[in-house]
Amino acid sequence: MPEVMRAVEISQPGGPEVLRLCERPVPQPAYGEILVRLDYAGVNRPDALQRAGLYAPPPTASDLPGLEGAGVVVALGDGVTEWAVGDSVCALLPGGGYAEYVTCPAKHALPVPAGMDMKQAACLPETYFTVWSNVFMRGRLKAGERFLVHGGSSGIGTTAIQLASAFGARVFTTAGSDAKCEVCRELGAEVALNYREADFVEVVRSAGGANLILDMVGGDYIPRNIKALADEGRLVQIAFLQGPKVELNFAQIMMRRLTVTGSTLRPQSDLAKARIADQMREKVWPLLDAGTVAPVMDSEFALEDAAAAHARIEDGGHIGKIALRVR
User: Fold this and answer.
1) In what order do the strands lie in the sheet with 191-194?
2) SMART domains from the entry (predicted)?
3) How far apart are CA 201 and CA 205, in angstroms?
4) What CATH number was assigned to the domain covering residues 4-124+287-325?
5) Are domains 4-124+287-325 and 128-262 of this chain identical in fold?
6) C-alpha closest to that of 314 among 19, 9, 6, 23
7) How far is Cα 172 from Cα 152, in angstroms, rounded to an integer?
8) pLDDT score of 51
9) Low-confidence residues of the chain, pLDDT below 50?
10) Which among 39, 48, 208, 293 is least buried, having the fewest CB atoms inside 10 angstroms?
11) pTM above 0.90, yes or no
């Protein structure tokens, strides 16, 4: 085991150019943790927010960005019985994924699905944990319900479309171009709307209203989402690309018995994340093993080109997931 590793650190808050290749000591697994030699890491919008100084890592997490990855277990902390050295895993990380080695709670790792390569597997945890916990656990989506997900061509969106379709929901989505909308339809969306040309409120209301909406846009989408919901519908907010503050008429929420909720994944307890992992192992991993659902891959960058990966995720042109090749 080497004593040092290559990693990408945030030299100061700022744009993609502040990401810098460096050397760091190889971390050691604490009680209940595993040490993973990463092959790939996933790139996500929270990484870019952390880089910009807008999303501080938890006090106990690495200051290195990176919330998901895939590789091989190379060491076990005390108390770990779920894994053995040599196992191939993908894992939800508290941070530190832009590096050759990373530690994480053993219960936040899952096996690499059958027939899936490390690049795809590295792009599973952050989006699948987020979608499963918010759409199915918090949002309680059921077969036959009308489900609207914004940003359908994003990593979250492509995952939500596939999982909701696989579990029998009717999927509506928005995206920023006709080409992106076509991808969404191919993934299982019944209706995909170019938000530059169509009013999602009108279209969804004409179908009876959404029983559940998953939104990461925020801003003026929030009152429009309220209008688009069916009576007793649920809105789950997971991000605010257009801001968290808006004027909202709560009379509509009361009169139509609506539920407005939301969550962020990273600050949740290790136990909460382990419970999400347990449900996904039972409900979602069989679909991944069978090839029923899979991550949609956009592009790959070398670890030292992390700045270009961040530029890609921020330019809005990507469809699906962006991966960093660590080795």
Assistant:
1) 191-194, 170-175, 146-149, 210-215, 229-237, 259-262
2) PKS_ER (SM00829)
3) 6
4) 3.90.180.10
5) no
6) 19
7) 9
8) 98
9) none
10) 208
11) yes
Which amino acid, one-letter code, is at 280? Answer: M
Q: Which residue has the tokens 């991944």?
A: 288
Match 């040309």 to its residue by tokens. 197
31-80 tens-digit pLDDT: 999 999 999 999 999 999 999 999 999 988 999 999 999 999 999 999 99
Q: How far apart are CA 305 and CA 287, in angstroms?
A: 33
Tell me the DSSP string of 14-53. Answer: SSGGGEEEEEEEPP---TTEEEEEEEEEEE-HHHHHHHTT
Residues sharing a CB contact under 8 Å with residue 192, sequence separation 6 or more, in sequence order:
152, 172, 173, 174, 175, 180, 181, 182, 184, 185
Residue 101 — left, alpha, or beta (φ > 0 → left; ψ -120 to 50 → alpha)? beta
CB neighbours of 14 closer than 8 A, spacing ≥ 6?
51, 52, 53
Instruction: Answer whether 134's CB lies under 8 Å from 172's CB.
Output: no
Residue-level length of the chain = 327
User: Where in the chain are the domains?
Assistant: 4-124+287-325, 128-262
